[in-house]
Amino acid sequence: MSPEPAFEDVANPTPEEMTVWAYAPGAQPPVSQDWDILATRPAFGSLFVTLAADGQCPHRQFFLGCLYLLAGDAVRTRFRTMPEVSLRALTDEATSTGEAWVSTWAARTRALVRTPESFDYEDWCDSRGLASTPT
Fold first, then answer.
1. Is the pLDDT confidence value at 42 over 80?
2. For residues 30 and 22, is the Cβ–Cβ distance under 8 A?
3. Dihedral sign computed on CA atoms, order 120, 103, 35, 133
4. How far is it, in rounded angstroms, from Cα 92 to Cα 83?
5. Residue 31 near residue 5, CB atoms below 8 Å
């Protein structure tokens, strides 16, 4: 059995560390609670799209959840956590993959941006929400 992927600072993972963890089958999150919240940041948006779109990535559902959290938090905070233009660019990137999970995320995100009053915390910021029904 291979060792768990290592993180120098789990509160500030690098893209490389995230990628190693993403492709480690059976690897547990480095912290038992809220690692999605710690790991989710706008700078990782493209990485999350790539990992969530890869059907060979063992942790793709986790990264899809990070995308929902990223979008939901952006809209919830009126784009203080991520500029609207950056979120729109990320949805374009996701759609361009042609992959169903991230394309659905992009469509749902665009709908949320159009109707921010429809935001529901459990849907967007809980792994049992929209991320649990990827298409």
1. yes
2. no
3. positive
4. 14
5. no
Return the domain boundaries, the chain: 44-132
| pTM reported for the whole predicted model | 0.95
Alpha-carbon dihedral angle through residues 92, 96, 98, 104, given to the nearest 10 degrees: 0
Which of 2-16, 69-83, 89-103 is least confident?
Answer: 2-16
Name the residue with tokens 């659905």. Answer: 104
Q: What's the rounded Cα separation, in Å, for the pair 130 and 12?
A: 26
Query: Mean pLDDT, to the nearest integer, of 113-129?
Result: 95
Two tokens, residue 87? 């979120």
Question: What is the Cα–Cα distance from 94 to 103, expressed in whole angstroms?
Answer: 6
